[in-house]
Amino acid sequence: MASGDDDDPIIEEGVANHIFVILTQYPVRPATMTYDDVSHLSAKIKPKQQRVEVEMAINTMSPNYCRSKGEQIALNVDGTTYDETNTYSVKMMDKQTFSSIQATTNTSRYAAAVFRKGELHITPLTGILQMRPSFSYLDKADSKTREREAANEGGDSSQDEAEEEAKAITVRFARPESEQARQRRIQSYEYLQKKQAEEPWVHLHYHSVKDSRSEHEKQYLFCQSVDASQNSELVKTPKEYLAMLMPPLAEEKVVKPVGPSNVLSMAQLRTLPLAEQVKTLMKNVKLMPFANLMGLLASGTDSTAVLRCIQQVALLVQGNWVVKSDVLYPKNTCSAHSGVPAEVLCRGRDFVMWRFTLERSVMRKEIASIIKLPPEDVKEFLEHVAAPRINRGWEFLLPTDVDFIKKHPDVAHRQHMLWLGIQSKLEKVFKFSKDDFMPKNSPQPEPVHISGEQRLQMAQERAQEKQPSLQKALDARRAGGTIQVKQEPISDREDEPMDTSSSPSSSSIPNGAVNGYPCATSPGFDHTNGGSPANMPSLELQDFVIKTFRKHFVLTLNELKRLFNLHLASMPVGQSVFHSISDHMLQDTILLCHCKQIMVPFPAQSTAAPDEQKVFGLWESGEVFDKHRRLLYDVFTKNYRVRRNVIQARLAQELGDIPKSDIDRLLNECCNSQGGMWYLKGTIQS
Question: Is 0.85 surpassed by the pTM of this model?
Answer without folding.
Answer: no
